[in-house]
Amino acid sequence: MGLGFRACLLTVRCVYCSSFRLALAEMGEANIGLKPIDAEEFRKHAHEMVDFIADYYRDIESFPVRSQVSPGYLKTLLPAAAPEDPETLEEVFADIQSKIIPGVTHWQSPNFFGYYPSNSSTAGLLGEMLSAGLNIVGFSWITSPAATELETIVLDWLAKLLKLPDEFLFGGMVEILDYKIIILTLYNAGNGGGVIQGTASEAVAVVLLAARTRAISENKRKGLSEAEILSKLAVYTSDQTHSCLQKGCVIAGIPLENLVTVPTDISTNYAVSPAAMRQALEDGVKQGLLPFFLCGTVGTTSSSAVDPLSALGDIAKDFGMWFHVDAAYAGSACICPEFRHHLDGVEKADSFNMNAHKWLLTNFDCSALWVKESSHLVSALSTTPEFLRNKASDLNQVVDYKDWQIPLGRRFRSLKLWFVMRMNGASGLRSYIRNHVCLAKRFEGFVREDPRFQLLVPRTFGLICFRLKPESDDPDNGRTLNSTLLEALNSSGRMFITHTVLSGVYTLRMAIGAPLTQDKHVDAAWKLIQEEATTLFEINLVKGPSHILANNLCSKNLNT
Fold this sequence. Notes:
There is one protein chain. Helices cover 45% and strands 12% of the residues. The chain is globular, with a radius of gyration of 28 Å. The longest helix has 36 residues, at 414-449. It has helices at 2-33, 39-58, 89-100, 122-134, 145-161, 200-220, 226-232, 244-252, 274-286, 309-318, 356-359, 374-381, 391-394, 414-449, 479-491, 519-538, 547-558; strands spanning 174-177, 180-183, 193-197, 233-238, 259-262, 290-297, 322-326, 351-355, 367-371, 453-455, 463-468, 498-502, 505-511. By secondary structure, the chain is an alpha/beta fold. Mean pLDDT is 89; it is low at 5-17, 173-189 and 545-560.
């Protein structure tokens, strides 16, 4: 029995070894044929991809702006498992055309007027391409010095275009000689500086965490326990502030009942009232809350309202709060002198954020955040395990952006912003913004001249808030009427807009800012809106002025 068992074991071992050697041989053969990056193959396929993208932009108006597919459509079109063998780029392109493009809502269409814009440009695309090609992970200076230093430089450039206070700038210099760091001037000349986040949601979460860390430290010195402090920390803002602040509170562990939103109304064009904010803070303190974070907005999502920054800054100082300014949308416009006054008071802020990917021709994602005191970010977010340590960081000679954000890894985002600023220049970017504002004024004029429609808030930048007027006895004050109009417009595929609610009123939002939008697209959108409104009247959904009047107005407006 012993000899038989040994013979069987030997046989099994021989079979196993033979199979293992065969598997290794097959792996070797497979690896010999696999070249993840082959320069010539990449050149060929990249040319094909560039042609595909260029054709997409050339033909973009032929696609319905909003995707017309139903939920779950793609699962029925694609296999349940990944392919075992390689497929050709031509096969992939075929599936993109037939399966992916139908499921895309075309944000770059000149007929996209929903939400707020998400800009793209030749310069932005080229910068994004180079970033993907270099594919660095620039979490610290040493991982790619150019990535860190270019980011500090271009954010200083942008801060200067916005005329931000010097406290938000880096301003220092370093020189590298023979791989040794020689400080010419203090690298971070002040304590502030800028960092590119992915979105404004990330930016507000980062500064909220920094403010929380500062508040905990300050209140511990007053004898409070950390648990008691965390239960009482309170955030104050208006009811028009973006919902990302609520999510930031969840991330930071701030009880949502301690997120205090001050009501706004049309009397201030939905900007928060300083008196109401101060009163809310005084009431909160009486209730035992510890106010630590105040957020103001330049260009709210619903109506593009602008909060009074200077007055809010004074209030934040009086209550010892971190003051953050969210200018995700309208910040771009403030590079134009005629809009810069909307940032008056930003000098009183602790942090400021704007999205270059919304309205400054920089491809998503590129959200610029500036702080006056970077040490608060580092205190809240820095982690330095042994495997990330290096001489430059240990000597505090450089900026390590891993300590200015939530994730560790980060892309070379500054390249695309650098490309955009160089290839367009400040004058080109200002002209771009001004053109969209002119188009918004044009659309605003159309709405004013048609008595069936109503402007619900004064236009400030590129957003127009309006509605189709309901009858006085309308049971839901025009909600059904306008939601029906909205769906008719969007399901047509010829344009795309979104809605909000202002003081209980269902409101249509026309946000003009797509890179390819021209006056002919705005005119066509207004004509379609009028046509669909006339159809609603004709089918007796509502009572209203005759469609003959509408047609006459349409003809008059488009000929002006």
